[in-house]
Amino acid sequence: MLRLRPRRAAVVAVLALVTAGCSTSGTDPDASGPGTSASGSNSSSTDASGAGAPGATRGGATIAPGAAGTTSGAPSPAARTGIGARPSASAGCAVFPADNVWHADVTRLPVHTRSAAMVGAIGADATVHADFGSGTWEGAPIGIPVTVVPAGQRRVPVTFGYADESDSGPYPIPPDAQVEGGPSGTGDRHVIVWDRSACRAYELFDAHRSGAGWQAGSGAVFDLRSNRMRRAGWTSADAAGLSVLAGLVRYDEVAAGRIDHAIRVTVPRTRTGWTWPASHSASSATDPALPQLGQRLRLKRSVDLSGLPRQARIVAEAMRRHGLIVADHGSAWYISGAPDPRWDNDALHALDRLRGGDFEVVDAAGLMVAPTSAAIR
User: Fold this and answer.
1) CB of 369 within 8 A of CB of 87?
2) Residue 26 confidence class, pLDDT cut points 50, 70, 90
3) CA 91/CA 81 separation, integer angstroms
4) How confident is the model at residue 138 (pLDDT cuts 50, 70, 90)?
């Protein structure tokens, strides 16, 4: 039997808002249930439970890589070479500077005073799930694809449902850019474009082709050579206002034997406000047991990783050294990565042995140089 897990939803609301010219101020924060967004945006005007950002009502299901029935054959062709790849040294474009908070070693950070409560709120008994892999599911690659574009890629217009929190275009997004969930996908529909020559990431949430360009719920441009954060209160293609690319597990990292950054993770609910390095809130809940967007978690040192297959072990080692960053609402302990035909889905599925109780929330405030910078001490 297929073991299906609920994935975050698909969007139709943002398109309606773009057409109608609505804004987040007209949404009812109590209109949606857990796992959904009230308005179809990763705006702060989401469900009072803290569920469902960024933006869309999220539904559908995804099967755990390696579970029975997983389609692990050849994946759909990539729109560009380099999908999911880590840049070589000659490319001259790492994903953020070495002193960026994404690259911080958190092994010695103190445990947060409310760690146990927050882990319990996320789900102490829920298992980790690698929401990426090889092959396809429902006709689309498993994970969040990354489209690498060459220097001089033609820029096209992009319109946003939440233009007041998005970086204006044009963006260098090709017409065949890979969309999360595929061309007909009904989920978050992230489009992540990596321009290595300019060392920038262009990221869209709920992206759809529109004429000669694209239409999206929200979008952000990240200078990957800079530690500058987004403006306080601004979202991105993620509810937390963070870069999606920065938190993806990429195959070439694992092939090289080490992931040097924190990993993007989703949780069912958060409380209002955000924790550095996030810049955006997507909840009105005030329960102190809930984590905030931007919260940093760490796999406990006591967890034995020796029995994990190599691919899973390297991911788990990164969760211990660099941790997880709460980036969005979704299923508990879902970690994000880029699809690649070289992933071993059965190996990734071994991460299911890890449970929420194997993690602890850390207090990362001591790393901060300034609240407007992602640089660390």
Assistant:
1) no
2) very low
3) 14
4) confident
Question: What are the CA-CA distances from residue 282 to residues 61, 96, 344 (Å)?
Answer: 22, 25, 34
Residue 357, C-beta contacts closer than 8 angstroms, at least 6 positions apart: 119, 124, 125
* CA gap 144, 265 in Å, rounded: 13
| Angle CA 216–335–166, to nearest 5 | 25
What are 31's two structure tokens?
A: 């209109």
How far is it, in rounded angstroms, from Cα 121 to Cα 287? 10
Give residue 91's pLDDT band: very low, low, confident or very high (50, 70, 90).
low
Strand partners, 337: 249
**H-type alpha helices, 110-203:** 115-122
Q: How far is CA 209 from the centre of its chain?
A: 21
CA torsion 240-183-24-192 (nearest 10°) is 30
**Do residues 135 and 72 make contact, with C-beta atoms less than 8 angstroms apart?**
yes
Whole-model pTM? 0.79
Strands 296-299 and 359-362: antiparallel
Residue 64: pLDDT over 50: no
User: In this structure, what DSSP letter does residue 68 have?
Assistant: T
Region 97-101: what's the mean pLDDT?
98
